[in-house]
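Running this now, will post back.
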Amino acid sequence: MNDWTFQTANADDWTRIAQLLRDNDLPLDGAEMHIGDFLLVYDGQTLAGCAALERYGASALLRSVATDTRFRGRGLGQALVRRILDIAQGEGIRTVILLTTTADKFFPRFGFKVIAREAAPEAVKVSAEFQGACPTSAITMQLSL
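Update: finished.
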């Protein structure tokens, strides 16, 4: 049984989040300004994973999904994504978009489908990830809730 605790991030969590993102080669651009959009998962006192849901009206950008390597293979990433998608659905988000260069095989299990980058909702395109934090070669995926 896992002893995970989920909580919303606050400014005091940024240093640990930034380190986890760096450890996973994920962009930091624009992330700190959305600190309250991060869902964190702790194993005891250790930050085991994070994910952020930047909200743009009825659309959202799922970003910064990362787990500490010591916690991989235990379903932590799946639990984190499921929880954040449940939050999105509960808030009335209708479309979730993500950009990835490495995890395009991970996200289809949640219903995400590859789309053309240009097909993403205009509201999401103002995000730092679309404005250059993620390369144009990144795969764009969409989930309708």
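The mean pLDDT is 94. More later if anyone needs it.
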